[in-house]
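Blinded run. Sample ID left blank on purpose so nobody reads anything into the name before looking at the predicted structure. Input follows.
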Amino acid sequence: MKIANFLSYDGNPREAAERVTAQESAGVDVVWVAEAYGYDSPTLMGYLAAVTERAEIGSGIINVFSRTPGAIAQTVAGLDNVSGGRAILGLGASGPQVIEGFHGVPYDKPLTRIREVIDVVRMALRREPLAYDGDTVTLPLPEGQGMGLGKPLKLINRPERSSVPIFMASLGQKSVAACAEIADGWIPTLFIPERAERVWGEALADGRSSRADDLGTLDVVAGGMLAITDDPDQQAALLQKARANVALYVGGMGARDKNFYNDLWTDYGFGDEAEVVQDLYLSGKKDQAAAQFADDTIRRMNLVGDEAFVRERIEANREAEVSILSVVPAGPDPLGDLERLKSWLD
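Blinded prediction complete.
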């Protein structure tokens, strides 16, 4: 099991880079760089490639609507070169509010778009001419569009690797099944290990039944806040922050009738809770919304507690097939916690 860290998408990249170099020394194996509608992730990924030596550097995530498939392929090929073969391409669909609001692009056929972008990126890394006829991607531009002068082109440079790991951020049944079929790794959100099989077990099995042998085992990225502490007051304060974050996603992300995280909470078996949280959050009662979640649920989503509890959470994630334990160090000794975690995993 590897250790990963997701960088905050609203943070300062220069400060984040300083933390990452220290975290790499403490044992972090993978760094994920988020984007949302803040700074772009490839810029910071390239910067991190220059100041790190060992850690893999992944986009967590790049959406498949705001860049062409060719641009995504160029980006990951370049990042893989400057990092010496340490790049991971994390892809996702994001959501209609970001895609249509921030980028001004229609949010059409997101799952089909992801599949076709992955096809094209893999073609480009193999230096194949980009000739592709899909539902959302057509290369070159077909006759009757543009000037009619497009022709299949292949990447000029020779990539560091002919295949870069591609991870998908997905939650819905169809998208998780597709991820298990075609991707190297899966990035779920709001992961509760004990309820993962209930929600995604069938979808993962369906996808794996069609998975190509050369893809190997599907990596799973999940975890939570990390703080190894015996102090109950510290634990409570940190878990309160985690509770507020869950409320943001379940209650406030997307529109009332288009919130993927609220749907997930219902799939977990917390439908009544999901409805109440959303009603309270959208009416401005954020603290009351956060208070609706059961303490045990929030604890299970994080690694905050004494050594015995954190070790138990590691095993719960392992049993849920998590292979990359993604943590956010939040205790009084974040680097020390990472070092202890690494020693336990080793």
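Unblinding after everyone has recorded impressions. The domain at 2-226+306-345 is CATH 3.20.20.30 (TIM Barrel).
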